[in-house]
Amino acid sequence: MNTAAPSIDQLRELSPGMPPFSYLPQTWAWLVLAVLALLLASLWGALRWRRWRRDQYRREALARLDRLAASQGEQRLAALRELPELLKRVALSMPDAPPVASLAGEQWQAFLDQRAPRPLPAGFADTLHLLAYAPEASLRTLDAQQVSALFSASRSWIEAHHVAV
């Protein structure tokens, strides 16, 4: 009789065996449902990607607006001068490419109001015209509350203006 203890070298790994169930769907309907879910997810992803690419001009304009709003001192005057140009560039960058390059005054205000989700302040276009063409002494008379309201209205228009696609 052999009374020697078994050695660890004598151990062998067991095979894992077959699982008691199948990983494949039991009926073809589950396969159709999985394919349909995959197609819907792909369609949703493609539409989100297209919208994200289409709205790139908004993201760039909002980043520029943040830099303009953060400017101080003499740079603040240059930032105020650039604000009307930024709004015009946003309007020109819209995917439906409206003919806004020649709009001014009441027509520009009407265009901005037409595309805005909320009404813009009365005389918004006139204020933009003042920012673009008034002498620096006029711009220095604007108080911080007016400037803040102007940047806020511009931000809300850039973020939410309607684009007909």
How would you explain this protein's 3D organization?
By secondary structure, the protein is mainly α. It has a domain at 56-160. The chain contains seven helices and no strands. The protein has helices at 28-54, 56-69, 74-93, 105-115, 124-133, 136-140, 144-160. Helix 3 packs across helix 5. The longest helix is centred in the first third of the chain and has 27 residues, at 28-54. The N and C termini lie far apart (90 Å). The relative contact order is 0.10.
What can be said about the biggest beta sheet?
none
Mean pLDDT: 86
Number of helices: 7
Tell me the total number of β-strands.
0
Which outline best applies? elongated
**Run of helices and strands:** HHHHHHH
The parts where pLDDT drops under 50 for at least 5 residues are none
The helix content is 55-70%
N-end to C-end Cα span? 90 Å
Query: Roughly what fraction of the amino acids lie in strands?
Result: under 5%
SS class: mainly alpha
Gyration radius over CA: 32 Å
Oligomer: single chain
